[in-house]
Design goal:
- This protein is of the alpha+beta class.
- Among the domains are: 88 residues, no CATH class; 107 residues, Chitinase A, domain 3 (Roll).
- It is 53% helix and 18% strand.
- It contains ten helices and eight strands.
- The strands form two sheets. Strands 1, 2, 3 and 8 form a four-stranded antiparallel beta sheet that branches.
- Helix 2 crosses helix 5 and helix 6 packs across helix 10.
- The longest helix has 48 residues.
- The chain is globular.
- The N and C termini lie close together (12 Å).
């Protein structure tokens, strides 16, 4: 079992030798859940990333559910760690200038300058350094996808026609959607905090938290009172910001925050119904779906290859 230890040296006058018992007072700060090559993942990191999901499984399935959920979250963190190591190896890291430009762009799109954005985030309880760290992580993941995975995906006309034929000339056309909607305040300075909250809710839902419960506790448009149900929509019936996104998602998938004029959505595709449609009508929709599926396949293929080459030790108790 690996443990992280903190050593405290007793303060003694210069020139004296402290007793052996006072030289090192080691106490447990955290437990290592796994090691990935030369990096570690701590138990606190695991719960910070997937705590709500783990606690929910524990509440319904007891100890066995907790252990299974811990392993599931740990596998996702191992994948992230392998991606981080690949980014470092390829020197794809995000520079301070890139990070600052992105922050300035986010602030500008929300009608703020950088200092106002920082003040609003800190007022809402999100530390500035934590925000920068999370944003840097998102940008690193985007660079990895664009530089490593995207070149592996080339969608041909034949693949699109194969996908169309596999559907038996039917393609999902009616989407049943769950939603969380957060309203933008009239004060522009408050918009950044709303977006930060939406990002947190999206991350929790992607991590396995119950979407209906999140909607009930946070939605500001009346969806929460009906289990997050937003309704069923055909192509073109949703606002443009949501329409293409929803019809490119897989059933059960949760979106990142999506801004509209009055607020921000986090949506989950609950179900899809089908109706007949000709190939040219649905070609763009198929392109989006096939691309997303291929990117997911390539990501999983890359992860399995990287995992096979890595030295990984799982240190969670059985």
């Amino acid at each position: 079992m690996y443990w992280l230890l903190a050593a405290a040296l007793a303060a003694e006058p210069e020139g004296t030798t402290p007793p052996a018992s006072a030289v090192v007072q080691a106490h447990i700060l955290d437990r290592v859940a796994a090691s990935v090559n030369d990096d570690i993942i701590t138990l606190s990191e695991l719960y910070e990333f997937g705590g709500p999901f783990i606690e929910e499984r524990s509440g319904t399935e007891g100890v066995a559910g907790r252990k299974a959920a811990e392993r599931e979250v740990l596998e996702r963190l191992i994948a992230r760690k392998l991606v981080d190591q690949e980014i470092d190896a390829l020197k794809l890291d995000v520079t301070e200038q890139e990070l600052d430009r992105t922050i300035d762009d986010i602030a500008q799109r929300n009608g703020l300058d950088r200092e106002s954005l920082r003040a609003e985030l800190e007022r809402q309880g999100m530390g500035w350094e934590m925000y920068r760290s999370q944003l840097q992580g998102d940008l690193r993941q985007m660079k990895f996808a664009q530089s490593v995975l995207r070149p592996r995906v080339n969608i041909t006309e034949d693949e699109l026609r194969d996908a169309y034929n596999r559907l038996g000339s039917n393609i999902p056309r009616l989407a049943k959607v769950q939603a969380i909607f957060l309203l933008f305040p009239t004060d522009p300075a408050g918009k950044a905090a709303v977006l930060a909250k939406a990002k947190l809710l999206s991350d929790q839902a992607m991590g396995g938290a119950d979407f209906a419960k999140l909607s009930a506790e946070n939605d500001e448009a009346g969806f929460g009172a009906q289990g997050g149900e937003m309704g069923s929509f055909a192509v073109g019936e949703l606002v443009p910001e949501l329409d293409r996104l929803v019809f490119g998602m897989q059933v059960g998938q949760v979106s990142a925050p999506v801004e509209v004029a009055t607020g921000v959505f986090v949506v989950r595709l609950q179900d899809l119904e089908s109706s007949a449609a000709d190939f040219e009508t649905v070609k763009a929709q198929l392109q989006e779906q096939v691309f997303e599926a291929r990117m997911t396949e390539e990501q999983e293929r890359w992860f399995q290859q990287a995992r096979g080459k890595a030295t990984i030790r799982i240190l969670l108790p059985e």
